[in-house]
Amino acid sequence: MDSLVVSNIRQRPLRSAISILGVALGVALVMLFTGLARGMSDDLQKRSSNVSAEIIFTRPGSTQIIASSANVSTKYVPLLQAIDGVESVTPVIRYVYPSGSFGFDQVEGVEWDSFSKMNNIRLIQGHAPSPDEVVIDETKASRNHPVGSTLKVFGDRVYRVAGIYAPESGARVKMTLASLQDELQAPNKCTLIYVKVKNPSEQLLVAKRINEALPGNKIQPTRELFATIESSIPGLTIFLRMLVGLAAIVSALVIMLAMHTTITERTREIGILKAMGASRLYIIGEIEREALLISFLGLLVGFALAGIAGFGIHKATGLIFEFGARWGLTAAAIGLLGGALGAFYPAARAANLDPVNALAYE
Amino acid sequence: MATIVKADNLEKVYRIGKVDVPALRGVSLAVQEGEFVAVMGPSGCGKSTMLHLLGGLLTPTKGRILVDGENLTAVSDAKRTDIRRRKIGFVFQRFNLFPTLTAEGNLRLAERIHGNGADDPDRRHEILRMLHLEDKMHHKPLELSGGEQQRVALARAVVNRPAIVLADEPTGNLDSENSELVLKMFRELNDRFNQTIIMITHNPEAAAACQRIIQMRDGHIV
Fold first, then answer.
1. CB of A13 less than 8 A from some CB of B
2. Are strands A104-110 and A173-176 parallel, antiparallel or unpaired?
3. Which residue, among B173, B208, B169, B201, has the nearest Cα to B187 in the 3D structure?
4. Are A301 and A21 in contact (CB under 8 A)?
5. Which has the closest alpha carbon to B119: B103, B132, B104, B136?
6. I want to staple A168 with a disulfide (CB 3.0 to 4.6 A). Which of A137, A161, A230, B149 is the partner?
7. What is the dihedral of CA A77, A82, A84, A87, to 10 degrees?
């Protein structure tokens, strides 16, 4: 092996492996967190996009994505239905609660007939929910919840799975509106009302009519809601950026420590390089190349770790990861840049060693 | 013959704590091109300091050093490194090979540092052949005997054909048989390539192989 860089890495396999793992950890963290954010957001968006209603009618202050309140009166249902241009309306309670294992779960209370008809949702197995029953989508069913099995909702309430529906839309678990109203002690209330218009090109006009007829409420085009799902999660972008920054610092520190130790160990070899006429730039270049190779290997391991961990977490918890090229490139840049920056101080220190002292180093 | 190494009134003082320790006290010498010179003297007399100064690894406290016409004492550290790379090869008592590289790898590293796209397998193999190392090319230092390691170190020092080879007790760690072999190699390099060799040694037999012996004592040439 004629390459000093490769042979140095091979000479200390444990230290090299730990350095690689350190970089990999930073990269994997970036990939997992951003993949989770994107996966959950896209999943939410995909499920939301199967809603055919063009308008969502709610009360001001309601947040549809993570709402768990039922503060809209169902008395608006006939009033909305009577407005010119409205084809159909259906009230929905969306309730978010802490899941038993990890994160949050959602359940929706719907009037099944009007909801399924409006959104072209069909039952592919079983029947519509009755009190104490739920229907679930195929993804939920695939996680060991066949028709006839039981499902815990709200942590400890047991419901029977009455049917499986497709395509997926909104919350994966749906029960009757009345059941959820009873459970929340919110009679005649819902979270939002979906409004489908007769002519989609007139949805703005219909929205205006609703606003005139029922002032003081929030009328939001469904497409706008879909476009802002990711940005509507408070602080998500800032959180992701901070995470990326932390990953960069972790990578840089791991490499800095590894290279610092390496250089102390190889002081004599650096002295030999200097005696052979190696310039400062050459010595810095050798050390930077070693750091970059370690970082590159860390990058590959990090991507593999993220993929394996994402798959494992998805299997265990149902959380969805979607790894995008943009964050992949960001993670790669962090790993490599962190490594290069981390190695720079030890490299500069090595380049400035006194050759005679370095040669005498034991 | 032209003078290839010239030192004028060299002084070197080390500062150890608050104490000044003089190592060289006004050394002047001239070495001709193609000369094979031994430097002898008791431990601590300043031999290694002088060799390090001539090789540009140290800067003198006072005095001037000319190597192949270039003033080592009047140039920057980067320029001194450049002169060392182009004109000087070092051989050390402790061989100082890179333990993770093969014999050939050590030579190739020297070529890469020298630059000029200097990866020249023919020249490398010629040197290895001359030093009887052809069958050791792919061995790492720990797989070689002391004599073989020193021959690899010698090959590495001369692979880029430097004008001057500076050797710091190259036979100090070798038995008499290997010492003789290494000295023979030095003589051959000196004869064949007209390389100037300045060799520190404690061994009178090694010194006897040289054309001239410089004796040092207490930081002076005597």
1. no
2. parallel
3. B208
4. yes
5. B104
6. A137
7. 60
Q: What gap in Å lies between CA A314 and CA A5, rounded to an integer?
A: 39
CB within 8 Å of B148: residues ≥ 6 apart: B133, B136, B139
Q: How many CB pairs under 8 A join A and B?
A: 69
For residue range A61-109, list pLDDT tens digits in order: 665 455 467 889 999 999 999 999 999 999 999 888 776 665 677 899 9
| Sequence-separated (6 or more) residues with CB below 8 Å from residue A144 | none
CATH number at residue B142: 3.40.50.300
Nearest-Cα residue of chain B relative to residue A1? B101
Question: CA B97 to CA B107: how far, in whole Å?
Answer: 10
Domain extent for B169: 3-221
| CA angle, residues A192, A195, A201, in degrees to nearest 5 | 140
Closest by CA to A230, choosing from A25, A6, A44, is A44
Q: What is the DSSP letter of A299?
A: H
Taking the CA of residue B151 and the nearest CA in chain A, the distance in Å comes to: 16
Of A133, A101, A33, A42, nearest to A318 (Cα)?
A101
| Interface predicted TM-score (ipTM) | 0.91
Measured distance CA(A343)–CA(A361) in Å, rounded: 22
pLDDT interval class at A1 (50, 70, 90): very low
Does the distance separating the beta carbons of A269 and B98 come in below 8 Å? yes
How many other CB atoms sit within 10 Å of the CB of residue B74? Answer: 11
Contact residues for B14 (Cβ-Cβ < 8 A; gap 6+): B20, B21, B22, B23
Neighbours of B32 (CB within 10 A): 14
Contact in structure between A2 and B108 (CB atoms under 8 Å): yes
* Coil/strand/helix, residue B73: helix
Residue A38 Cα to chain centre, angstroms: 4
Asked if B79 reaches chain A (Cβ–Cβ under 8 Å), the answer is no
The residue count of chain A comes to 362
- The tally of domains found in chain B comes to 1
Q: Which of A3, A272, A286, A361 to mutate to test the interface with B (most CBs of B within 10 A)?
A: A272
Percent of chain A with pLDDT over 90: 38
Residue that the structure tokens 């499986």 belong to: A164
What length does chain B have? 222
Q: What is the DSSP letter of A227?
A: H
CA distance linking residue A25 with residue A21, whole number of Å? 6
Place of tokens 């008499």: B176
Quick: pLDDT tens for B83-119.
999 999 999 988 899 998 999 899 999 999 998 655 6
Q: For position A331, what pLDDT does the model report?
A: 84
CB B120 within 8 A of CB B111: yes
Chain B residues lying within 8 Å of A353, measured CB to CB: none
* DSSP-derived 3-state class of residue A169: coil
Which residues 15-54 in chain A show a CB within 8 A of chain B? none
